[in-house]
């Protein structure tokens, strides 16, 4: 989802958008889903994931000189937040595998 939105809403290449989305997914999963979510609430973990997505997109868009507006970044962040909220609910229902 993030990859497609980055390509549609900016001048990001498909490869750049994919690398950015993978980086966000990996960091979000490790920090938000494995470390923060078990110790806090779904809402708190989702909010932190949203902050992470926003900051990464803002930094990458400036560094890569992408044509993303503040509103574009907010739209992607909001959609990612909705996904994360329901993903966290699913994670809490699925028993841990050892």
Offer a concise description of the structure.
This protein has 98 residues and is mainly alpha-helical.
Supply the helix-strand structural class: mainly alpha
Largest sheet: none
Put simply, the count of helices is: 4
* Spatial gap, N to C terminus: 30 Å
Radius of gyration: 14 Å
Strand content: under 5%
Please tally the β strands and state the result.
0
Q: Give unreliable regions as ranges.
A: none
Determine the mean pLDDT. 92
Query: N-to-C SSE series?
Result: HHHH
Task: Name the assembly state.
Answer: single chain
Task: Determine the fraction of residues in helical runs and give it as a percent range.
Answer: over 70%
Assign an overall shape.
elongated
What does this structure look like?
With 98 residues, this protein is mainly α. The chain has helices spanning 2-9, 14-36, 42-63, 70-93. α1 (2-9) packs across α2 (14-36). The longest helix has 24 residues, at 70-93. The mean pLDDT is 92.
Layout of helices and strands, plus pairs?
Blueprint (H helix, E strand, L loop, with lengths): L1 H8 L4 H23 L5 H22 L6 H24 L5
Helix pairs in contact: 1-2, 2-3, 3-4
């Amino acid at each position: 989802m993030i990859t497609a939105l980055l390509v549609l809403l900016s001048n990001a290449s498909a490869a750049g958008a994919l690398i950015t989305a993978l980086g966000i997914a990996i960091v979000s999963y490790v920090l938000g889903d494995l470390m923060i979510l078990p110790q806090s609430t779904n809402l708190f973990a989702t909010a932190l994931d949203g902050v992470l997505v926003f900051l990464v997109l803002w930094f990458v868009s400036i560094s890569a000189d992408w044509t993303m507006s503040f509103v574009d970044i907010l739209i992607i962040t909001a959609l990612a937040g909705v996904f994360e909220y329901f993903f966290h609910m699913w994670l809490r229902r699925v028993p841990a595998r050892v």
